[in-house]
Amino acid sequence: MPDKIHKPDAQWQAELTPTQYQICRKGGTEIAFTGEYWHTKEPGVYRCVCCGNELFHSETKFDSGTGWPSFGAPFDPDRVATRTDRAHGMVRTEALCARCGAHLGHVFEDGPPPTGLRFCINSAALRLEKKSG
Ligand code: FE
């Protein structure tokens, strides 16, 4: 796990698109079925759009029917951090990039075996590095 990344908010704003900034640095959520990766089945590695941290592998991606990319597990538990999110009158588990603190989405306990978890992630927080061949 590489060293943590800390950047001033203004720098993130300059480096990211407005949508990426709103979701990753301001805890926003993209509208279901509108993101780039919700229906993507191509093999590859999903990296943090902010810092390049390897977050999820396509092998754990499944069709949740929610309209957001959904994964049963992170690439490595150390790469994705979680914390309790009490926003909007709900108690949820927020998923964040463990390296740069980017808001990724939320974790729910209604996923498929073997983990039973569903990492419900915004496409805008991810960058798919497609596996060739
Ligand atoms: Fe990151």
Topology:
Blueprint: H1 9-15, H2 18-24, E1 44-48, E2 54-57, E3 61-62, E4 70-71, E5 80-85, E6 92-97, E7 103-108, E8 118-121, E9 126-130
The site of fe (iii) ion has 8 residues, from loops.
Quick description:
The protein is mainly β and 133 residues long. It has two helices and nine strands. A hairpin with a 5-residue loop joins strand 6 and strand 7.
Task: Write up this protein.
This protein has 133 residues and is mainly beta. The chain has one domain: Peptide methionine sulfoxide reductase (Metal Binding Protein, Guanine Nucleotide Exchange Factor, Chain A, Beta Complex). It is 11% helix and 30% strand. Strands 3-4-8-7-6-5 form a six-stranded antiparallel sheet, with no helix packed on it. It has a three-stranded antiparallel sheet with strand order 2-1-9, with no helix packed on it. A hairpin with a 5-residue loop joins strand 6 and strand 7. The radius of gyration is 14 Å and the shape is globular. The protein binds fe (iii) ion (FE). Fe (iii) ion binds next to loops.
Main beta-sheet strand count, sense and barrel state: 6 strands, antiparallel
The Cα radius of gyration reads 14 Å
Can you tell me the overall shape?
A: globular
Q: Terminal Cα separation, in Å? A: 27 Å
Strand proportion:
25-35%
Ligand roster: fe (iii) ion
* Uncertain regions spanning at least 5 consecutive residues: none
What strand order characterises the main sheet? 3-4-8-7-6-5
The CATH topology is: Metal Binding Protein, Guanine Nucleotide Exchange Factor, Chain A
Mean pLDDT over all positions = 96
Protein structure class: mainly beta
